Amino acid sequence: MEELEHGLLIQPWAWLQLSEDSLLAKAYITTSKGYALLLSDLQHVWHEQVDTSVVSQRAKELNKRLTATPSAFLSHLRDLMCTLLERSAAPKGATFSWEHVPQGLTLRIRSEISGLPFHWNFQCALASPSLVSQHLIRPLTGMSLVLQCQVRELASLLRLKDAEIQDYQENGAVLSRDRLKTEPFDENAFLEQVITENLPDACSIENGRSFAMKLQNLYVAIAKQEFQAKRKRQSSGDPQASDSISSNETDDRPLNQPGQHSSAPSLSVFETLDMETSVPMQRPHLSKVKRKKAKGLFS
Known about the structure:
Elements: H1 2-9, E1 14-18, E2 21-30, E3 34-40, E4 45-51, H2 52-62, H3 70-87, E5 95-101, E6 104-113, E7 116-126, H4 129-170, E8 174-175, H5 187-202, H6 209-214, H7 216-235, E9 286-287
């Protein structure tokens, strides 16, 4: 079961629109082990993790006319969920619905296998606080630190650019287009403006769609880093690292990783940041007049 836990950890969250309601979801399904699933409406988090024996028993209860191995059912579930999570829409010929039950949530699937109706219920219970921390609180904390580091690096770069431009100007360079002129970067004023303008939207996360659509590469990078650090502590004999991972399943293709390729490319931390709302930085064009002879640092 450790493999299911670790596989689920490094999966990205997806945003699902089911009828008039929406959920955040992540899943990890393999044909030889079982599956693990997390769902959240940003008020509660629900979880289910089962092995092949539970899959076999539930399949018999819900599908009297179907006879197949647990791996066949899991393969079909993986295909359905992979399409749902990647496209935020139900696969053709399948329907998804969910309902609250006492202390839990049930996600229902209706589709077909070989022309026969196939039914499945994901029976999720409320997730434990430790699970919520592992999949949401800790990664989000790490993401906030990375984004803060990015802001500091960009601010440092802008100060260097200002110093470079000032040096050009002091040596006689002038702008070829006045509209490109900028004021020296003021980090405190910039941060205050960003907070003032974006705080209302940042505090109105609604259904979590923006988080699932824009920041999942960074989420996966943080989750993988923490997972690798935990494995390193375990291999060094750290008693606090009690988790382990099984490498026996080399043939199984986990959810969101068709074939040998991940649905999200492997990127560096800063490449994973979604910058679609940022304004492209244009470097001012400076026309040089006769430049004074530069003085060396030690001349």
